[in-house]
Specification:
binds S-adenosylmethionine; about 25% helix; Rossmann fold; two-stranded antiparallel ribbon; about 260 residues; 8-stranded mixed beta sheet
C-alpha cells in the first residue's frame, strides 16, 4: 500500500486493501449522529469498527473522538453504544478520556453548555507504547527535623521539592479560527481537530516512524501532525472537496506535494 497518502474513497475500501495487523495507531473523529452534512456522507459504523480492529497491530491504540446529538429532548447515547460495540468485538476500553473545549459554542435551553467530547482510547490487547505527557508538581511543606530543641518541641524546616507526574485524562483545548490551527484553508472543513489534540495523542501512543491511520481524514490534521512528529501515515476521506483542502494544506506547510 502506498503510504503518506489520502485515499479519496470510503474508508472501508481503503481498509479492504490493508493486511491484518498493519497499523500502529488510529486517531479519528467519525461523522457522528448526522450532526453535520458532509459531502458524500456515508458511515457504516459496525463494519468500520470490525475493520479497524482487524488492521490494527496487537498493542495498537485507536482514539475515537465523539459526542452525542440531542434528539427529541434526549441525548442519543451513540458514543456509549459505539464504545460498548468496540468492546464486544475485542477491543479493550483502555481509557475514557475527555476532550474539553475551553470556549465552546454557547447553547440555549435548559442544559449546561456542552463543553466536551469523549476521547475513547481502545487498545488491541495492552497498549505497546505509552509515553505519558508529564507536568511539573511542586511540593511545599514542612519537614520534621527529628531532633527536639531546648524547648522540647519538634523543629521543622521549610522544604520545596519539584518533580513530575502524568497529566490527567481530561485534555483542555481552546478552539476556533486561528487557534485550532494556523492554516486558514483548514476552516473550509466544518469540524476540524485542534492540532494540539492530535499531537498529544500521537506522541503518547506512538514512536517515530510508526504507521498512523485516520479513516475520516477531513482537512488533513492527522496527516500534518504525523509529518511534523516524524511518523508515517495513511488516510481516507470520502469527499473530493475535503481531500483537495487537505492536499492544499499539506503543500502549503511542506515543501513537496504529497499527491
Ligand atoms: C469529523 S470529520 C473529520 C475531521 C478531521 N478530524 C479534521 O481534523 O479535519 C469526518 C469526515 O469523515 C468523512 N467521511 C464520512 N464518511 C466517510 C467514509 N465512509 N469514509 C471516509 N470518510 C468519510 C466526512 O466527509 C468528513 O470529512
Amino acid at each position: 500500500m502506498e503510504l503518506q497518502k489520502i485515499y479519496n474513497e470510503n474508508c472501508l475500501d481503503t481498509m479492504a486493501n490493508m493486511p491484518d495487523n498493519f497499523i500502529d495507531f488510529i486517531i479519528t473523529s467519525p461523522p457522528y449522529d448526522n450532526i453535520r452534512e458532509y459531502n458524500g456522507y456515508e458511515f457504516e459504523f459496525e463494519k468500520i469498527a470490525q475493520e479497524l480492529f482487524r488492521i490494527l497491530k496487537k498493542g495498537g491504540v485507536l482514539i475515537w473522538v465523539v459526542g452525542d446529538k440531542t434528539e427529541n429532548g434526549s441525548e442519543t447515547g451513540t458514543s456509549f453504544k459505539q464504545a460498548l460495540y468496540f468492546k464486544e468485538i475485542g477491543f479493550n476500553l483502555h481509557d475514557t478520556m475527555i476532550y474539553y473545549k475551553n470556549n465552546p459554542m454557547p447553547t440555549t435551553g435548559n442544559r449546561y453548555h456542552q463543553h466536551f467530547e469523549y476521547m475513547f482510547a481502545f487498545s488491541k490487547g495492552l497498549p505497546k507504547t505509552f509515553n505519558p505527557i508529564k507536568e511539573e508538581t511542586k511540593f511545599r511543606g514542612l519537614a520534621n527535623m527529628k531532633n527536639r530543641g531546648e524547648t522540647g518541641s519538634l523543629h521543622y524546616k521549610k522544604v520545596e521539592r519539584t518533580s513530575e507526574k502524568k497529566v490527567g485524562n481530561v485534555f483542555f483545548y481552546s478552539i476556533g479560527g486561528g487557534i485550532s490551527t494556523k492554516d486558514k484553508i483548514a476552516y473550509q472543513h466544518p469540524a476540524i481537530f485542534p492540532e494540539q489534540l492530535v499531537i498529544d495523542q500521537i506522541v503518547t501512543w506512538t514512536n517515530e516512524q510508526d504507521l498512523i491511520y485516520d479513516p475520516f481524514m477531513g482537512s488533513g490534521t492527522t496527516a500534518k501532525v504525523s509529518i511534523i512528529t516524524n511518523r508515517q501515515w495513511i488516510g481516507s476521506e470520502i469527499s473530493e472537496e475535503y481531500v483537495k483542502i487537505a492536499g492544499q494544506r499539506l503543500s502549503e506547510n511542506f515543501s513537496h506535494n504529497l499527491f
